[in-house]
Amino acid sequence: MRVLWIFVVALAAGCRDGGEGDDTGTTDPTVTEPIAVGLDSTDANVVKVLRERIETARTHPESGTHRGTLGLAYEANGYDAAALESYAQAEALDGDAFEWPQARFDEALKRMDRALEIDPDYAPAWLWRGHWLLDVDRMDEAAISFSNARELGAGAPAVVGQARVHLRRGNAAPALELLEPLSGTVDHPLVFRVLGRTLRDLGRIDEARVALSKGREARQLTWEDPVLDRRTAFIAGFGGRMLNAESLVASGNAAEAVPILEELVVDFPEHATLLNLLAVAYAQTGRAEESLTVLEQAVELAPEYYPLHLNLAGAYDDLGDFEKALAFLDRAIDVHPTFSVAHERKGVVLMRMGRYEEALVALDTAARHDARDPEVFYFAGVIESNFERWRGAIERFRQAIDVDPAFAKAYIHMARSYGELRRFDDAREALAKADGLGTHVQDARSARAWLDRLEASGL
User: Fold this and answer.
1) Where among 270, 302, 334 does a domain terminate?
2) Which of 101, 157, 224, 366 has CB 3.0 to 4.6 Å from 343, enough for a Cys bridge?
3) Does a structural domain hold residue 3?
4) What are 56-85's pLDDT values in tens digits?
5) Looking at the 3D structure of the chain, how many domains does it have?
């Protein structure tokens, strides 16, 4: 974890005298001229933002707030050295009203403590403090930080923090008491990863495998931090704005990303990655026709950029035009022959077209290039079932479950395949495992009813 931040905790408005820029703390007379770099950038937007912040800092030479804000602008646009120097100046000018980022952990933690003295009810600061202390194995202090954060309403991030402290201390049982109810209400990979480690430590290996499979996605559990979010307003460069937009799209906030991306397209109308991200953002906000238009324009500009072909295939698949979807998948594969996702999606499209043997070849190719996707084996099992090749189907479903022990549909289809072979005990064992996962309940119930009828018929 990159430990650079001290979280800014301003005094409540009613506790400060004066208006904007009227800092009343004790100033350091040796701090005069603000740092001025980046004005020769080739990005006009970066120059504009930095020039405005520099001039404001010069106009208010005794303002720690304006000097720190200049630091935020520098860091947001990649000028880390200038940012750190500006933060140091802000601290020297007004150390009591605002806490700024620092690079060294020991100083950062001291400044965090000072910030929390100013506002002890700022939950995000307690969360960050807990994680920092956890990283350096100061368990008692970390436990207090997470407890305070939880009391202040920080929710799941605080509970997970508390559980991690218990695990570090070798106390899996109290960690489980925290995580089991949380996993029932918060569907996040990190919750299940920590739960899986907890169950493993308790010797509950099968349950641990299920939990860890649900936590396979490498996503961190984030939380809102209004102070840290102030930096976003100063992101002016193309790279910074793209990263911000990508983060918004990935977190499900595509509507916030769209205006950022549309503004960037004005200056960079032929940037393939940008156009692809805009098309994804349009699709996520229900603007399917605009998404398709952008993708079609982009693929003409960058025919070797295979994500465009993949997304165009998805768009035409959604429209029911399987021939066009297949054509774009083949083009993606031509550009990137080992791209397993394209082979998998080709297999699914061919299934929809009733071209099962070709679909099986595509799925086998996908598995050969990357055997970590349970869907590949699951779809192959469905095809084997369509050909009534029940033993082959069982093996495919077993492969899917080996990759993802929480794949309920694979258990259900495996049970049906066992039923066709009249292996009723094996079928019921598979359904019991599906029941234990608590998903696809109706499908499991239907499979059990079919199994009962089949066994009763004696056929």
Assistant:
1) 302
2) 366
3) no
4) 898 888 888 788 888 878 877 777 667 777
5) 3
pTM, two decimals, is 0.61
What residues make up the domain containing 294? 237-302
Three-class DSSP labels, the chain: CCCCCCCCCCCCHHHCCCCCCCCCCCCCCCCCCCCCCCCCCCCHHHHHHHHHHHHHHHHCCCCHHHHHHHHHHHHHCCCHHHHHHHHHHHHHHCCCCCCCCCCCHHHHHHHHHHHHHHCCCCHHHHHHHHHHHHHCCCHHHHHHHHHHHHHCCCCHHHHHHHHHHHHHCCCHHHHHHHHHHHHCCCCCHHHHHHHHHHHHHCCCHHHHHHHHHHCCCCCCCCCCCHHHHHHHHHCCCHHHHHHHHHHHHHCCCHHHHHHHHHHHHHHCCCCHHHHHHHHHHHHHCCCHHHHHHHHHHHHHHCCCCHHHHHHHHHHHHHCCCHHHHHHHHHHHHHHCCCCHHHHHHHHHHHHHCCCHHHHHHHHHHHHHHCCCCHHHHHHHHHHHHHCCCHHHHHHHHHHHHHHCCCCHHHHHHHHHHHHHCCCHHHHHHHHHHHHHHCCCHHHHHHHHHHHHHHHHHCC
pLDDT digits (tens, 9 = 90+) for 282-332: 999 999 999 999 999 999 999 988 899 999 999 999 999 999 999 999 999
